[in-house]
Amino acid sequence: MNGYADAERTELEHRLLTYAQAKELGGQTVSSVVVEGRAGEGDSLENWLFGVVRNGIEERCVLRRNGPTVARQSNRRREFQLLSRLQGSGLPIPRVDWLDETGEHFGRAGFTMERCEGVADLMALTPANRFGWDEETRLSLALRFTQLMAQIHGLDWRALGLGEVLDVPTVPIAEARLQTILDEIERDRLEPYPEIDETVDWLQQRFPTHGDLVLTHGDFRVVQALLSPDAQIRALLDWEFARLSDPVEELAHFLMPPMAPIHTIAGVWEAEDFIRDYEAATGTRVDRTSLQWWRVLNMLWVVSFMLHTLRGIVENTVNGIRTHSFVSRLLGMLLSLTHP
Predict the structure, then answer these.
(1) Which CATH number characterizes residue 196's domain?
(2) Rounded distance between C-alpha atoms, residue 133 and residue 192, angstroms
(3) Domain end: 114, 129, 150, which one?
(4) 48, 62 Cβ separation under 8 angstroms
(5) What is the residue-level pLDDT of the chain in tens, covering all 340 positions?
(6) What is the C-alpha separation between 219 and 237, in angstroms, rounded?
(7) How many Cβ atoms are within 10 Å of 59's Cβ, its own excluded?
(8) Last residue of some domain: 87, 114, 141?
């Protein structure tokens, strides 16, 4: 660990310990905090691993804190409240603990949560998975992901009080989502990008019919799960983009062009198999025309993130290396969806 990172780690240890001891937290005595370092990289969010000794018992925790350039739709208070209300729902999620919504105590807005067991693996459904799973095991895991998505969508979000945490759309969700993304693009793009205008025209001429309103994870991907060696899903993380939306949006996100090759099993469990398994788990039918519309919209959303990153590079607020060539590749994928 270099000197700068070590200084940041030491500062966080002091901040967390000071906060815990000042709060006294229900009579629980915190005697020490040890920050081990960051898990992963990135500019928008930071996940710091730390241990805390509370009433003589050592616990392994994570501080989930805003980064220097947190995404506009990302909010630590909302994510904390959502996870709090989902405790006891049956979903594999971490227990949350301390919230600092202003950043006064943790340096930037954030919350702490338990550190769940398991390993994240982007390639979990592919032969390149880190566990050496065979095809049969990967197929079983794929079905577990499908069932978990169905379980999320099947929750009674009203009974859980999620309408007090997440925005409840008052206009057709497809139109609202498109407008949100367009607003972000207009704030960030540095050049015209005619591919975007062509895509928006395509979307505006084909709005899908309004579907059911359900809780969605918002960024449901294989890499968001912590997995055990026996191919069980121990936890689903990163609920920062959770929202009330059409369930087809979530399926479309899972099947976006950048993700589809690693979210399916070639020749065994492909896009149509995933959709049919989801339909069997929920007892619903997925409209394929709506699915295509949402796939295009989700690709546009990914492009909007890259435009935000490019602006950050120009304005010297983003440390990560991003290139115009990557944005061009995403734009090519976007047009391929509207011109199959």
Answers:
(1) 3.90.1200.10
(2) 46
(3) 114
(4) yes
(5) 445 578 889 999 999 998 888 875 555 688 889 999 998 766 678 999 999 998 888 999 999 999 876 666 779 999 999 999 999 999 999 999 999 999 999 999 999 999 999 999 999 999 999 999 999 999 999 999 999 999 999 999 999 999 999 999 999 999 999 999 999 999 999 888 999 999 999 999 999 987 889 999 999 999 999 999 999 999 999 999 999 999 999 999 999 998 999 999 999 999 999 999 999 999 999 999 999 999 999 999 999 988 887 787 777 765 544 444 556 666 777 778 887 7
(6) 10
(7) 15
(8) 114
Instruction: Kindly report the pTM of this predicted structure.
Output: 0.89
- How far from 142 is each of 16, 22, 233, CA to CA, in Å? 38, 45, 10
Q: Which residue has the tokens 């630590």?
A: 76
3-state secondary structure the chain: CCHHHHHHHHHHHHHHHHHHHHHCCCCCCEEEEEEEEECCCCCCEEEEEEEEEECCEEEEEEEEEECCCCCCCCCHHHHHHHHHHHCCCCCCCCCEEEEECCCCCCCCCEEEEECCCCECCCCCCCCCCCCCCCHHHHHHHHHHHHHHHHHHHCCCCCCCCHHHCCCCCCCCHHHHHHHHHHHHHHHHCCCCCHHHHHHHHHHHCCCCCCCCCEEECCCCCHHHEEECCCCCEEEECCCCCCEEECHHHHHHHHCCCCCHHHHCECCCECHHHHHHHHHHHHCCCCCHHHHHHHHHHHHHHHHHHHHHHHHHHHCCCCCCCCCHHHHHHHHHHHHHHHCC
Neighbours of 157 (CB within 10 A): 21
Number of domains making up the chain = 2
Q: Which domain holds residue 296?
A: 159-222+239-338
